[in-house]
Amino acid sequence: MLICRTIAEIKDFVRTARGAGQTVGLVPTMGYFHAGHLALMEEAGKTCDVVVVSLYVNPMQFGPREDLAQYPRDFERDCAMAREAGVDAIFVPTDEEMYPQGFATYVEVTGLTDRLCGQSRPGHFRGVATVVTKLLNIVTPDRAFFGRKDAQQALVIQRLVKDLNMDQEVVILPTVREEDGLAMSSRNVYLTAEQRRDALVLYRSLRAFRETVQRGERDAGKLRGMIYDLIAAVPGARPDYVEVLGLPELQPIEILQGGVIAAVAVRFGNTRLIDNVIMEV
Ligand code: AMP
Predict the structure, then answer these.
(1) Within a 10 A sphere around the Cβ of 66, how many other Cβ atoms?
(2) Nearest residue to 82 (alpha-carbon basis) of 32, 47, 48
(3) What secondary structure letter does DSSP report for 199?
(4) pLDDT tens column, 241-270
(5) Which residues pair with 262 in a beta bridge?
(6) What pTM value is reported for the model?
């Protein structure tokens, strides 16, 4: 596995692969790999000749009081896992490489970013959209792979690729969970044993949402209230948002019909976790 620290190096690698007629898959990440990342890498390997993983903790998508400095990092471990997953090249740029002196261009997806994480993390999706646009322009993959765990992010990226007429196929893969249902996340390492147990309420409340919809409930307000109450009943859990919205625009709804998403963000101590379920009603 090639380790590329500069844009010139990764461009050179991709140019050579293309020259040999190979298709290229890109998996953008912030590292500290878990089975969710590996599932994206494996799918990329199945559908593309060459797999590139980017590992970059993008400061632009963190707010001033967020966990940028604490974000978990272990480059040696990540390299071993990526190599094991069959990744061909890992792109690990520095901040100077990504945002050199004078950098002044930003990508902003409007509308979709008004709610959920866009509301509770101002500027977050501007950072995500800008870095993903840069990564897609640098690597120019045939396909780029993202996880459904970050459902709003996936919608934002699909939107920007369409709006900016980019050629990439955006592939969204299902959320990978621990055996007990907790969505895999690099941030799970922050949790104490007690918080780790409390955090199970995310998936428990979303499963209750799914089952209640399956039994025929269609009132978005009632369903939202049910999820909220289940979360608020856990003393260590502080809900940031609980929303039931329509897809594909994340539009507010009163009655569930067509594509819907239940999305939650909950704090356990200083750790903020997100999860969601998507249904077709
Ligand atoms: P991150 O390193 O957290 O920025 O995530 C990199 C990519 O992996 C993003 O597309 C995430 O949506 C995806 N991802 C993170 N956690 C999971 C998970 N539990 N299941 C599936 N994909 C995930």
Answers:
(1) 15
(2) 32
(3) T
(4) 999 999 999 999 999 999 999 999 999 999
(5) 244, 277
(6) 0.98
